[in-house]
Each structure stands twice: as C-alpha cells, then as structure tokens.
Amino acid sequence: MKPDKRWTLKPADEAKITSLAAALQIHPALCRLLVVRGIEDFETSKTFFRPQLSMLHDPFLMKDMQLAVQRIDNAIKNNEKVLIYGDYDVDGTTAVSVVYSFLHQYILSLPFRGGKEGLNYYIPHRYREGYGISKAGIDYAHTNGYTLLITLDCGIKSYELIQYARSLGIDVIVCDHHLPDSELPPAFAILNPKQPGCNYPFKELSGCGIGFKLITALARKWNLPDTTVFNYLDLVATSIAADIVPMDGENRVLAFYGLKKANDDPSLAIKTLKEMGGIRRPLHINDLVFVIGPRVNAAGRMDDARKVIDFFVETDEARIKQLASELHADNMDRKEVDKSITEEALAILQGDDAAAHRKSTVVYRSHWHKGVVGIVASRLIDYYYRPTVVLTSSNDKVSGSARSVRGFNIYEALHACRDLLENYGGHFYAAGITLHPDKLNDFIAKFEEVVTASIPPHLLIPEIEIDAEIRLTDIRQ
C-alpha cells in the first residue's frame, strides 16, 4: 500500500507578485508561479523565457581549465596516446561521446600534425570493474601506451587509483561534477565547479556539461567556430535530463538549445532512438528522461556500455540502426528483470513484520541483477517511503544502490557507516556501496540506527509541493 502524502503550499511574497505583474503585464496567477520559483523581476523573467547561448559562462573561469587545455594541446602536438574514460550511465556515456567525437573529428584539422589512431575511449564494465576509475582501466591504458587519461563523470574520489596512474607515467585530467572529499586526487588537472577554490559561477553542470565546457575551451584555443561544439548539444541535453541535475542557470540554456538541436537537426543516433520510441511529435524534455535515457542506460545495466559510445559516434546509418535495436532489446530485458526483482523485494518486506516499524529499508538477495538494483530501490520507495538500499552479490562482495526520500542526504548516511563499507560514492539522493558479506548484518543495523537518529519524522511522509492555488476564473480565456 502506497503511503499518504502531505500537501505543502509554497509561500510567496505578495509585493513581489504585484510588482512583477506590473512589469510583465501578465496575470498575477502566472506571476505567483514565477515568484515562488525565484523569478522576481523583468530581467530574470527575460532570462527564463528567452535563454540565449550568449548566457553561457566562459569555460576558462573554471579552475584548472587552462591547465587541462594546454595538456591536451601538448599531447596532440607530441602525438601522445589519449584515452577518454567515463562512467557507464547516460551522463558518463554522453560525456565520453561528446569529448571523443570532438577530438576525433577535428584533430586532423588543427594547425599541426596528429594522428587519430592515438585516441580511444574506455568504459568500465559494471560487473567486472564497478563504478568510476578502475585498476583494470589504468592497466589497460598503461599496457597500450596511453600517457594522458581524461575521465568524465568520475574520478573526483579516486585518490589511490590516480596516484597509481601517476606512478605508471600517466597524467590524469579529471572532469567530474560529484561532490569532492576534503582531499582531492593527485590529478594533473581537475575540472569540477564544486572543488574548493573554483570560482566558476554555475555549480550544477552534469558530467557531460563539464565535458562540453572542456571542448568549448579547446575550440577557443584552436580558433574553431562555436558551431563545432554546439553540434553536441542534443547529447548534453540528454545528460541533463537523465542525470536530473537542476534545470536552471546554464543547464536551462543547454537543455533549451539541446532540445532545439534534437528536434531541428538531431544526431543520427538521437533521431534513430526517437523513431524506435515511436515518437512522431517534437521531443520534450520528458522524452529524453523516459524514452531516450532508459535505452542508453540499459546497455550498461544489462551488458556492456561501450556499445553506447559505438552508437553515438557511428556515422553509418545501417550500423546505427543495428546498435539501436540492441539498446532497445537491452531495455526490454531490463524491464523484465526490474519487474521480477521488485515483486520479490516487496514480498520480502511484506513478510517481515518488523519492516513496518523501521525508518530505513535494506533488502538483499545474492541472485539479483546488479544492473537494476538502483531502479528497484526507487520503486520500493513508492511503497515504503524511506531511505532504501537494495543489495546483491558481485565478485564475492555485496554491492548495490541506495536511494533517498526528499530532503534526506543518503550520501551522508552512508558516510556515517563508512567503517563497514569497502567503497561508496554518489549524490544527495542516490549512491552506490560495496561491502564484505561478513559486514552485511552490521551494516543493516548501523544504517537503520543512523537514519533513525537523523531523519525528521515529516520526511518519512511524501510531500506534494504546490506552487499556487488558482481559481477557474484565473485560467478562463
């Protein structure tokens, strides 16, 4: 049975509503919606309704950007081998596709000689290597002579592994948007607006958004026209939608023009996925979340995410259709597995009398598919609205995904359990963990203890936030 909900009407400043209505000459009901969303005057309203690419910030405002651009420039001039390394989800694979495609397409047009054979990409396998930078990935780079590794959507927490790469003579440029630890990894350069000392004005870019800023800076370094980077905006918008980063500031500009690109002049890959999803109308942002995103994500969940990069960088239409069919098949398999595990997990919880009195949910079965446990955790929250962890067995370890309820920082809760974990990482609302099987029962008890001690009771009731109450007369024509 799904939980009841609490309804919360957002407060609004009546004076600001009146002032905005006078400035915009529109109905006060609309102005109330704008004010509660932080749009309080004519200029912010203009920015909201008429985003312009000129509103994007200078990429060189990002800490270490000049350092990263110079290192890549030197690598290409000196014919070094460069490996683009990214996570296996939508954000990571779109980021790798954007940076790799940009370098691959334009490297021979630069005012010096280079070689495309020295550029490649690497996506870690979810089950054999796990999330983020892996030792296997670094060993691959070393064995094959790569001296520069560019990570996308990962790396900010990989201190030991980046130190290992350095010991092998590999420079690492980290492009990541996750929250850093107090000690940054010893990378050659770090592009992350959330790191200490970074004055970049917008902090909530996606991982692909960071990659986009990198290629924008490279395009300026190499005197390439802006159109060379704007060609990738449909992939950037896909990452923004799928990774659920805040849809304001630069993200709103990138998403607006990314959707425009996806509808007016889409990449062959996006066009093919749209057709496969049966969409005959213009794409909306929700289509990127619920139609494009799941098909891209499914490869890493069910098989090997490298095929996603192959799909995005491919130019042969027949090959793209073949890869799109494979992504679609992976997504259908994912749906079946997801449904089966969710039903089994619900049966476990319904059969556990003590579960009804807990403030957290932790469920484990060794045979569950690791690729869908995060989705299952989200589905369980629909029924048991509380911080949830779904675990399975992988490589003789227990690993899985955590999801949270609105307002509760799941990452901090896991951080409080770090003495029982071998690895963990993630966001405010979503995270992944790995632990030794012997620590499982202790973790279940400790996680419940931490959540019980720190979560306010009202956060265990789903909230529906209401921007405004309106009368029928407010919406009549």
What does this protein look like?
β7, α16 and β8 form a beta-alpha-beta unit. This protein is α/β, with parallel strands linked by helices and 477 residues long. α5 packs antiparallel against α10 (233-243) and α5 (90-106) crosses α14. It is globular, with a radius of gyration of 23 Å. The longest helix is centred in the C-terminal third of the chain and has 34 residues, at 317-350. It has a 5-stranded parallel β-sheet with strand order 3-2-4-5-6, sandwiched between helices. A 5-stranded mixed β-sheet has the order 7-8-9-11-10, with helices on both faces. Strands 1-12 form a two-stranded parallel ribbon. Helices cover 48% and strands 13% of the residues. It has helices spanning 14-24, 28-36, 42-49, 65-77, 90-106, 135-143, 159-167, 207-221, 227-230, 233-243, 249-264, 268-276, 285-302, 306-313, 317-350, 373-383, 410-415, 440-454, 472-475; strands spanning 6-9, 81-86, 119-122, 146-152, 171-175, 189-191, 361-364, 388-394, 397-403, 423-426, 430-435, 463-466.
Q: Which structural class should the secondary elements be placed in?
A: alpha/beta
Strand order of the largest sheet: 3-2-4-5-6
- Sheet with most strands: 5 strands, parallel
Oligomer: single chain
Number of helices: 19
Global morphology: globular
Beta-strand proportion: 5-15%
Tally of extended strands?
A: 12
Rg: 23 Å
First-residue to last-residue Cα separation: 40 Å
Nearest-integer average pLDDT: 93
Fraction of residues in helix: 40-55%
- Point out poorly predicted stretches: none
